[in-house]
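User: Predict structure, ligand pyridoxal-5'-phosphate.
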Amino acid sequence: MPLDRAACAALDRDDPLAEFRDAFEIADGVIYLDGNSLGALPKATRARLADVVAREWGGELIRGWNTAGWITMPQRVGDRIASLIGAEADEVIAADSTSVNLFKLATAALALRPGRRVIVTEPGNFPTDLYILQGVHDLLGDRVDLRVVEPDRIEQALDADTALLLLTQVHYKTGRIHDMARLTAKAHAAGALALWDLSHSAGAIDVNLNAAGADLAVGCGYKYLNGGPGAPAFLFVAKRHQARLRSPLSGWMGHATPFTFGDDYVPAPGVERMLCGTPPILGLAALEVGVDLMASADRRAIRAKSMALGDLFIRLVEHACPDQFTLHSPRDAQARGSQVSFGHADGYAIMQALIARGVIGDFRAPDVIRFGFAPLYVRYVDVYDAAMHLKDIMDSGAWRDAAYQTRGAVT
Ligand SMILES: *Cc1c(COP(=O)(O)O)cnc(C)c1O
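Assistant: Predicted complex:
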């Protein structure tokens, strides 16, 4: 028998991160297991956004670019994100969306490897990562070739034609973690660059870009960083590449001196050259609150708790619902991000029945129910209660209700 509820409550009492839960707004009766898709609302975000709107925008008007420090927000928020991902402060900026940052960095990386045409990635990568590469291919034609290979064939696929290896560190559907240091070293041995998508890593697992020798990275602001729906994303360029990397979206905010209003594009010296247009200040203000909160938590405690919550959920579900679900995530916590996925042919309806009871996870086609464990606000008792709700839904057949069979636009 896995832990009972009282034992889970005891783990919560001993949790070094316990105090963080109160920093978030989570309604009574809601067990929020989707922080890997949209992080919860930090309480401080309300006041910060109200202040940015009323005092900075309303009061300062255009002066706010200087007086409220808006113009340097991409760097300021990037500096804080850098501290979460093992990067130097001047290697990260907050900007655009993950998709747009992927486009900028993948395209720019090709130019750093003239004569090499191949971008290696894996099938089943997050769709936008593959779609953006397909768009780069459409744009550049013969200059680029995509080599989409199964994860166990990535190393063999890296060769003298490879310009870039693009991988997502933590797989969005299964939570499987790629060995960033080893694969980056293999890419370098082949003469290629490595671009890592950290969307499901930043704020969830230990990321150490510079220790791994990573060249480029992108990541998401609205998942574990709790920046709010559609929050700005971030990008990383290792210092050694900054002077040569050219953005294909050479907008004025990436110019060395935007306010000289010259006719010719001259890239800014550092990572700022990867900025494009005017930064979204309201979005950055919300992101800054989320990132500051995350940066104030102990990273080792975050990772330890993320592994413990996932282990607990797997044990509880397999005990409570024997043989009903297929585990799609690595059983070994070291190899798993902060999420657990189970397969079931009726996964969609089962997840809808859970959501109707306030247990919010999500569904990923064709058959995956996915549960994210954001260590700052998910408690051990939440994991226990979620597993018991799942058991009840399976035992009673409640998921068969017609109301749970119709799919919404967002699953
Ligand atoms: C969430 C996620 C994205 C999101 O991209 P957007 O541009 O914000 O829509 C990209 N890549 C991965 C791996 C993700 O998990």
